[in-house]
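FORM 7B - TANDEM STRUCTURE REPORT

SECTION 1: FIRST PROTEIN
SEQUENCE AND TOKENS:
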Amino acid sequence: MPGRSAVSFLALFLAAGISSAMAQRSDSLPPAIATAFRQAYPNATILHVSREPQDGKIVYEIESRDGSTRRDLLYALDGTVIEIEEMIPADSVPAAVRSALERDVTGATLLGAERVTRGDVVLYEVQARKNGRSQSLTYDPQGVRKE
């Protein structure tokens, strides 16, 4: 029987850990970040939260969905937005970016795109496929390729 109680204890321990991890998913945001997120995206659902080191500081990444829009946001501890990555439909990619993609990868199919905003800088990360091979390319709104 000692084996059975050890298994029961382990099961309870794991269940507690899982429920704790689930609670951290939505309740672990510092108040400044939670307030900033809710004010900016009142109808969004938080899918996942992670706490990460970046350049010697702690930042929080929120993966969210707002209707059909998927959005990942990176916040500083004071609630300041560092970066926004937003999935956009392929037909929402600026014409200059689509033209640049065709120039750089002739005959490629545009699979999807993200608009990435860092401060006042906006970039488009596009996923393209040609001959069964996928690649990711980054452009500014004028179609200038970024590395």
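SECTION 2: SECOND PROTEIN
SEQUENCE AND TOKENS:
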Amino acid sequence: MITRTEFDVLPTVEKVYTLFDLGDELDVREDRGYRIKLYLISDFFVELWFGIKHPEDTQMISLSEEEVMEVYSERIDISQGFTTNL
């Protein structure tokens, strides 16, 4: 299992491998010219942002449960991904 802190300090290539190896895709949305995929890795979330018109403009952002709830609470039920109750 990897923690959010450990994930955040990985080099980008290792983040990508970790995301696709350990992450479960939960949702896809579009916002401000990006296609955004939400993943759950153990007990934290990662958003993978792809530039729709500029695919080279890609970034990964790790998020806490609270941050995800602000954006995704009406889109998906993320509670099943946790060992503790929300």
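SECTION 3: OBSERVATIONS ON SECOND PROTEIN
Confidence is low (pLDDT under 50) at residues 82-86.
The beta strands are 24-31, 34-41, 44-51, 58-63.

SECTION 4: SIGNATURE
Preparer initials: ____
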